[in-house]
């Protein structure tokens, strides 16, 4: 399945969710491709060591090249140190690339990623996970077109419900413009949860509004292990001591369990 991790609100744990879910699939024995769709290259920096990152970011084997020349997708795939997990990295060229495509009406920019993935999925990969930055521009539009499911991570802050609503409205707008009818399939992941009554009330409101589209698993706030995993380039889900790592393992189990039903 192709899943895109999307929310127009920043700071909701999109990248950490994308990386942990992709790694979870890989650890479960599924050939997995993670695509970094953020010009800040956050997912790329989490999965590669410092000596490799400069070569990746300065080179041309990245998602920007894929969007310009979808047929070259295999040339832009990098193996990570995690068994079964490959990646198409990102760099700061992505926004410029998408703006250039938008200016050329001959490039059919909303389906560029879809065309690329047809070369490798489902032939080479069982699962594809796509990370996005919070701005709703042309790359997220591409991911919506090719995705089988959209995961919307949402932290419990003021405006959370409005950000879900806005994200769903923009997703629907993209799908409505497609020539072929494509149903909207999405799930909401509640992240950065504190044990506060106001958080509990917000969770209740979201579950009341979106029902079974909200994952049972919630992800707690626990900054220290998340930061340590980032600095050391280690997987958070390999941390056996922190609660947030256990939450992500439970989330992965819920996703995989839902696929098997």
Radius of gyration: 18 Å
Q: Sheet bearing the most strands, described? A: 8 strands, mixed
Count of β-strands:
8
Q: How would you name the oligomeric state of the polypeptide chains in this document? A: single chain
Sheet with the most strands: spatial strand order? 3-4-2-5-1-6-7-8
Q: What is the global morphology?
A: globular
* Tally of contiguous helical segments: 11
Query: H/E series, N to C?
Result: EHEHHHEEHHEHEHEHEHH
Helix content: 40-55%
N-C termini distance? 15 Å
**Beta fraction:** 15-25%
SS-derived structural category = alpha/beta
Low-confidence stretches: none
- What do the pLDDT scores average to? 91
Describe this structure in words.
The protein is of the alpha/beta class and 261 residues long. It has helices at 14-27, 42-47, 50-58, 63-68, 94-103, 112-117, 138-146, 160-176, 197-210, 223-232, 243-260, and strands spanning 2-5, 32-37, 78-79, 85-88, 127-132, 149-155, 186-193, 214-220. It has an eight-stranded mixed sheet, with helices on both faces. β3 (78-79) and β4 form a beta hairpin. α1 packs across α11. The longest helix has 18 residues, at 243-260. The two termini are 15 Å apart.
